[in-house]
Design a protein that fits this description.
Low-confidence stretches: 1-39
Mean pLDDT: 90
Oligomer: single chain
Largest sheet: 17 strands, mixed
CATH architecture of the largest domain: Distorted Sandwich
CATH topology of the largest domain: Beta-galactosidase, Chain A, domain 5
Shape: elongated
Length: 536
């Protein structure tokens, strides 16, 4: 998983950078571009393009042996460290589509130590594509000392779509392997999406990271406010053609993804619509944190809406060892990694602004059949590691020669786009078992769980004492179940004690019920005895 973990520090640097840019090729010569060494974008010769051609290219590529994109000038790229990279800025005057006819300019990313493989980027208009040529003249190398060393054949590592008007920075970025991400409606980058996940956390198998090797950015007629991205995927075990249509809306960034995949060889664990995030600690496991900030995470839970309509919330963990959870389903309605806690006082970070990190919800289009939402949690001791992965793993075998076609929508939001009609979980807390102040009667093998719910039918309900916490556990026993409203708030608190021996994981389940009426979503949790630093 090392490639997945080390990319995060580099991504954090990008948020502060002014990187590569260009102008619409419709406004420049239709020959070979402007002269070498001049400012402005340069373009290759025109070529016909549409999605069916891209799909045919991906299919043909799968029939050939895999050849990774060569890394150009590796010794030079090694010099472009995190700190040096921050000195390199794209000249925004040259941004693609930087004119009144287009709503969003596009700038390009430079190569560096942590983004070493160049990608081909094309501008598309009316079915004609022209490759955008890299030239050092597009960049201001600042005090990096690399301006004179930059060769003319280095290449781009990706691109970003810029805000316009009073908004600063970018709202969409594609860079590294098949990663892409959006700043969401709160204008703060956090978790990432990927084109595909291959053999994530499979014992004795190395995870593969296929690359988007080429992009086609399509100009929209009439200045439409969408950005359409076509991408060619290539990896050891499969290839793919992608069409990703991105729309910037006031309360969400919506990306519609269509993908056709072609396998070169068999895959043990195929991950569709994968999301990658970071969770270090929260109110649940704050005793394991080693930082002054109360909480540090891009996402605090996995939400699921099953094919049968059940709403599920699974708080995230920072386990001592890699943990993989599988939630079986058939034709899921959706799932996502969410940041439900939006209270700045819970983070106290006025630089990283974890309270603004977007949530991402995956909405399947059509029937996905049988499979499982899989959650991989990897131990981390800091915020620079992406240690959470969630994806859909189909039941169908991912055999050599298999093909896949799927459609889904990603919602980059502050609040989940399809909130449940029942109450939601808003906090999970762990503590010492028993009654406070009666230490001598505490269970040395026990743990107290406190779950806070709000919304749905609980929102207007007055205090009452006949609401039941329906709790089940994979091992051990449960006692001291209570449900009470927290005075002066609209929150309800369910609590229970778990008695369990040993250190094996315990899978817990809880929801609130009044008579035969379900009041809340289902809380699922994997408790890891001995991992929370309590002294009973």
């Amino acid at each position: 998983m090392s490639m997945d973990l080390t990319r995060r520090r580099f991504l954090q640097a990008l948020e502060a950078l002014g990187l590569v840019a260009a102008t619409s090729w419709l406004d420049v010569s239709h020959g070979e571009g402007t002269p070498d060494g001049g400012s402005g974008l340069q373009f290759g010769p025109p070529q016909p393009f549409d999605y069916q051609r891209l799909k045919a290219e991906a299919r043909a590529l799968a029939e050939k042996p895999y050849k990774p994109t060569p890394v150009p000038h590796p010794a030079l790229l090694d010099k472009i460290t995190y700190d040096v990279y921050q000195q390199i800025r794209f000249r925004d005057r040259d941004a693609l589509w930087r004119d009144a006819r287009h709503p969003f300019p596009v700038e390009f990313f430079h190569l560096g130590r942590y983004a070493r493989r160049p990608v081909r980027i094309h501008a598309v208009s009316r079915g004609v594509a022209r490759r955008i040529r890299y030239t050092p003249a597009l960049f201001d190398y600042g005090h990096s000392g690399l301006g004179a060393e930059a060769p003319p054949d280095l290449g781009f590592s990706g691109f970003r779509v810029m805000n316009v008007g009073k908004e600063k920075g970018d709202w969409l970025a594609f860079q590294g392997a098949s990663y892409f991400r959006s700043a969401g409606p709160l204008n703060q980058y956090g978790l990432s999406a990927r084109g595909i996940a291959v053999d994530t956390a499979v014992p004795e198998r190395k995870e593969q990271f296929p690359d988007f090797t080429a992009f086609w950015l399509e100009e929209q007629p009439g200045g439409d406010d969408t950005v359409t991205v076509y991408a060619l995927l290539d990896g050891i075990s499969l290839t793919g053609a992608y069409r990703i249509v991105c729309r910037k809306q006031p309360k969400a960034i919506v990306t519609d993804v269509h993908a056709d995949l072609f396998q070169r060889r068999g895959i043990d664990r195929l991950g569709l619509a994968p999301l990658t995030s970071m969770y270090w600690y929260s109110e649940t496991n704050e005793r394991t944190g080693k930082d002054w900030r109360p909480e540090i995470h891009d996402s605090d839970g996995l939400a699921m809406w099953t094919g049968k309509g059940e709403r599920i919330w699974r708080p995230l963990n920072n386990p001592p060892h890699v943990q993989t959870s599988s939630f079986l389903d058939h034709n899921p309605k959706g799932f996502g990694l969410l940041q439900r806690d939006r209270n700045f006082d819970h983070y106290l970070d006025d630089s990283a602004y974890y309270n603004r990190r977007p949530s991402v919800w995956v909405e399947p289009k059509g029937e996905w059949g049988s499979g499982a939402v899989m959650l991989v949690e990897i131990p981390t001791d800091g915020e620079t590691n992406d240690n959470i992965v969630a994806f859909w793993n189909p039941s169908r075998r991912a055999a050599s020669g298999a093909t896949w076609s799927l459609d889904y929508r990603l919602h980059w939001v502050a609040q989940e786009p399809f909130p449940p009609a029942v109450a939601r979980v808003v906090a999970t807390r762990l503590g010492q078992p028993g009654i406070p102040g009666q230490h001598s009667k505490r269970d040395p093998h026990g743990r107290k769980f406190v779950i806070e719910f709000t919304g749905g039918p609980l929102a207007t309900m007055k205090q009452r004492f006949d609401i039941d916490a329906v709790v089940s556990t994979s091992r051990g026993s449960v006692s001291e179940r209570h449900v009470l409203k927290i005075l002066g708030t609209d929150r309800w608190r369910a609590q229970f004690d778990l008695h369990v021996l040993g250190t094996d994981p315990v899978n817990l389940r809880c929801y609130l019920r009044l008579a035969d009426r379900t009041l809340s979503e289902t809380w699922l949790y994997q408790y890891l005895p001995g991992n929370y630093g309590f002294d009973c």
